[in-house]
Amino acid sequence: MTLHKSQEERRRDILDAARERFVTDGYSRARLNDVAADAGLSKGGVYFHFRSKREIFDALVDEDFQRVMGALGAMRKVTGNTADKLIFFAQAGFRVALANPTIAKFQVVMGEMALAADDVGDRLREIHEQFVAEVADVLREGVGRGELRADLDTETGARLLVTLMDGVRIAVAGAFHKSVEFEKLIADGARLLVEGFLPGAGRGA
Fold first, then answer.
1. pLDDT of residue 192
2. Which CATH class is domain 1-51?
3. Whole-model pTM?
4. Phi-psi region for residue 61, left (φ > 0), alpha (ψ -120 to 50) or beta?
5. Least confident stretch, 34-48, 105-119, 168-182
6. CATH number for the domain running over 57-195
7. Is 44 helix (H, G, I), strand (E, B) or coil?
């Protein structure tokens, strides 16, 4: 008996299958026939939802963007000081990578595509700048409240934090997946990322 699925569920199946294929095979070698088979559809069924492999890739990029923007919005609602908010944001990103390593590994595919297609590179840079601007705004608010060091370069701090988080998410999803105590890494690593932003950090005794 074939399970009936809604159009949205079918679309979800395609996106999940494509992400796995892009990560496993690389974007250029991934075939829509394989994506369709993995999603339990015909190739025509895939084309019903997406016009091309590139359109699927773009949809996955948009999903990644919305996921991080959602985490940024949740961060702003956290009760506590700026350090608490930043730690929450970092931990949320790490836990996504731990729960679904393919999501984190997809960042590598996006990097590959950014080098191969100028418009992808432009789009990813635009997204990155939005992330940096949001985090920098949170840092500025923290400086204004005296919760972060007064001499903090908020733009540099935001770029460093976003870049480090991207790297750690890939590491969490990668080769160390079976050997690292991830709950400790998530709890302690996120705090270490923001320690240097606190008043008195980096000053001699």
1. 77
2. mainly alpha
3. 0.84
4. alpha
5. 168-182
6. 1.10.357.10
7. helix
Q: Determine the Cα–Cα distance for residues 167 and 131; give it in Å rounded to an integer.
A: 15
Residues of the chain with pLDDT > 90, as a percent, come to: 53
Q: How many CA atoms lie within 13 A of 56 on its CB side?
A: 30
CA angle, corner 148, sides to 145 and 151, nearest 5? 105
pLDDT in tens, 164-181: 778 777 776 665 555 566
Residue 23's contacts (CB-CB under 8 Å, 6 or more residues apart) are 102, 105, 106, 108, 109
Q: How is the chain split into domains, by residue range?
A: 1-51, 57-195
Helix and strand tally (H, E) in the chain? 9, 0
Return the closest-CA partner of residue 59 out of 101, 12, 95, 4.
12
What are the backbone dihedrals phi and psi of residue 67, each rounded to the nearest 5 degrees, phi first? Answer: -65, -45
